[in-house]
Amino acid sequence: MASIGAWIWGTSQLDEAVDKATSELLPAGGEDIALNLEICDQIRSKSAPAKDAMRALKRRLNHKNPNVQLLALSLTDICIKNGGDLFLAEVASREFMDNLVSILKMPALNHDVKQTILRLVQNWSIAFEGKPSLSYVGQVYKTLTNEGYKFPPKDLAIANSAMVDTMTAPEWIDSEVCLRCRTLFSFTNRKHHCRNCGQVFDQACSSKTMALPHFGITQEVRVCDSCHSKLTKKADKVDKGHRHSTSLHGQRHKSARELADAELQRAIQLSLQEVNGARSGYVPSQPSPSKWGYSEPPIVERSTYPDRKTDEEDDPDLKAAIEASLREAAAPKPSAPIVVETPRTEDAPYSYSGPGYSQSYPPAVSQPPLPKLHNYDLEPLEADAILTFNQTVEQVQAQGGRDLSRYPAVTELYDKASGLRPKLALSLDDAGRKEDAFRYA
Fold first, then answer.
1. What is the pLDDT of residues 138-152, one digit of tens each?
2. Zinc-finger among the record's keywords (predicted)?
3. Taking the domains of the chain in order of start, what are their residue ranges?
4. Which residues contact 424 (CB under 8 A, 6 or more apart)?
């Protein structure tokens, strides 16, 4: 299986992936994280040999373009943290580290590349402490320090040994018998290695296949029955916990949504009650009496002044004038003045003489009756119905509701508002004509 994986992801494919991840066309700091992690998975799963990966990165580090060198250094650091022990051993070798030091000592080296190399060498030396097989990185760090290179301040939170402790597929163990059923291998009973534990089994004890993401192996590979049972139970336990947390979150979300819907329905019902007459709506203020109107005088009880008499009470002309005025006030007032034609005599002018005053009028001229004006203005309750429907729809949309059929009260408001559309259109058209007439008058 390992040979097949190495053949699929061979040296040419690895070189192409590294070249793409460190391309000159990528902007500074624009790493392709997905491609970088894919390269790490191929190295950790041993589909790509660790030595070939180290040499591909070494080739890109020797590039003349500083941007390519920075991308290669970033990819190397990611592979160190995710590539496994075999790749760590290749990076800590003299072949890689001596080449890195030679780049650092170039006189025309870019400043950013130089500072990045110093920072990474310092971080790697701290992370590799306590690992004898990786001690050469620490020796290089001490040598550069003695030569006077100024390293950046140490960041122990980043340069931690736990950052490079990644799980890698185990080395294969060879045997002449199946390590589970102890059956001897033969021409018909062939041996197979488990990619999870590295032990050897026959076909009967290693017939299962599954992906091993903890080793960076995403394709289905052969595993023994024991490892398959163990990994399946672990995955089921994790999946149950995830489903439980998801169901709790869904229930909380559902209850909150139902509460919001109930509140919205209650608000719509209140709006309908207000439209139907529970609320009086807009009531225009009554105009105060002006000089063109009239108001009845206060009623004064005569019993209050029993002994008070004036000469006017005995005047019959004054009584007749007062009664005529009261009858005129009690009669309904027309919207337009009524012209009363009286016979014209040359000897008698148009005048009226009464006690205490005299008034004359010009001759009356007969005029045609004025046409009745149409009133297209909306009544207060009609305008309130339209505004209530508009506010209710905005409230439903603000709470995330898109299906208005779920709210039956909205349909009733819509019917009322739709019935007022013709009158509203006439009112707007009439207002526009009045505005034009006033503007060009």
1. 999 999 999 999 999
2. yes
3. 11-162, 169-236, 380-440
4. 378, 386
